[in-house]
Amino acid sequence: MAQPLDDVAFRNLATVRAGFDAWSAGTGSPYDSLADHARWEIVGNSVASRVYVDKEDFLTNVIRPFNARMSQRLVPTIRDIFADRDTVIVLFDAAGVARDGIPYRNTYAWFLTLEGDQIVRASAFFDAIAFNDLWQRVPV
């Protein structure tokens, strides 16, 4: 039988879910909860795979250029979300339309570590082929 979430896990789950709800509604994003010193790693072999040393590094080099390639914003749909103490894991699909009119779809798994109500560390996994295609096909 599943154990109930402890207070920390419950609070962290609520923080991340609120960020995804805002992202879905177009009123915010999970990145609003990133601490300024948050370390974000994109794992794998995509053109964006590396460790980003803080929030601004990640937003400047990934999120803003990604959004600039889109004509219709990326909208997430959570498949599953799990919390254990300071860690929240989110498996989700996201879809939007690039500026060249071609749909972009990908599936992501994020492993997030929170302190207080802020994300301080993240490891992100996704289909690098789909991401690289968008990144190389649509200039900023």
TrEMBL record:
Pfam families: SnoaL_2 (PF12680)
SUPFAM superfamilies: NTF2-like
Limits of the SnoaL-like domain: 16-121
InterPro entries in alphabetical order: NTF2-like_dom_sf, SnoaL-like
Designated name of the protein: SnoaL-like domain-containing protein
Taxonomic source organism: Mycolicibacterium litorale
